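[#protein-structures] MJ: dropping ApeA N-terminal domain-containing protein here for a structure pass
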Amino acid sequence: MDGLREWTEFSAIAEERTTDEHNYIRGFHIDVSSEASLEWLQGDARMTLQTDWRAATSHVRGEPSVGVFEWVVLDSAFNSPVPFLTHLVEHQKIKHLLVLMFDGAIHFRQHRVKDESFAKRHGRMSELHLPFVELISRRTIHEYAASEPDARAARMPLVYLDQIGAEGLTKWSDRYEAWERFILPTVGVLGRQDVFVEDLVVSLSMSVEAAGHLIGVAEGEVETYGRNRKPSTATHIYRCLRAVDVAWGDHVESILGLARASADVYNSIKHFDRGQLPDHEEMLLISLVLRHLIRLTALNVIDSTGQLILQADGQRELSAIHARFSVIERRVRHDGRWEQLPVRAEKPLPKGFTTW
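AK: finished. structure tokens for ApeA N-terminal domain-containing protein:
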């Protein structure tokens, strides 16, 4: 599936070059072997991430040449045969994790299975051989037509495989079912193209609400309670904001205010009797906040100590949020209201310069 090679940073190819005294390349040695791998348990499934490759011959200007194609595969195995759907469920847990790590769509590209049903015998007396056979499923075939990720886009995950490790992947799997209501709304909307910002805010808010229920009571949340003195939408958002504990910038007076503003945007979209839809710029900004908040919360599902968040490369997203606040010249007050910042006076041009 998409993203495995970038996320694992596994490679089957090792290169070695020899140069002369002028630093010109005189020799080029390539060693190809499927040695990079990681194994862990997901319930009854033994999961493996490993390199795979094949040699390809081609001709360049009539001269023979050799090429090597490599990729990373996710392998699942059970002690006894199980239906394909059972394997797929385990694969989807990792796929959904990658959606959150890369902040975008991840697609299956091929499934191959190995089973005694497809055994082959080479000659009468030879041993049985179990080759991999391609499996086409109505559950995944539509993904094959999706556009391939652009290699030039240089998508970078929030954290890499080596930061999560086998233990972290087992924890993700063990907690997946309990956190499913948090995971599915977000991975569903991030996997779509051309999504309305209203849909984005609603789906992301559903995930945050689910996470808030699972996280439980947080210090200081009483200020977010509704008129009935019970937890509100703002309460669940506040619980997530407090759990990830990152700096949202000078344009946010407090995480209490950010929780209130986020809840207000969500409820204004959801409820017809709220009148007009919220300001588009405010909806867009809140969608960026919720998107990053959910991805960081996913790291806490894997590592509840918060150490994985400290290792995460989330500065790009936070910088984008800070920049967006600056562009629209607004800030969020402690009470959750939006405050328009005074327009900054442009610096006068040096003497003798004019603008067109």
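MJ: nice. The mean pLDDT is 88.
AK: one more thing. Residues 53 and 70 are 4 Å apart (CA to CA).
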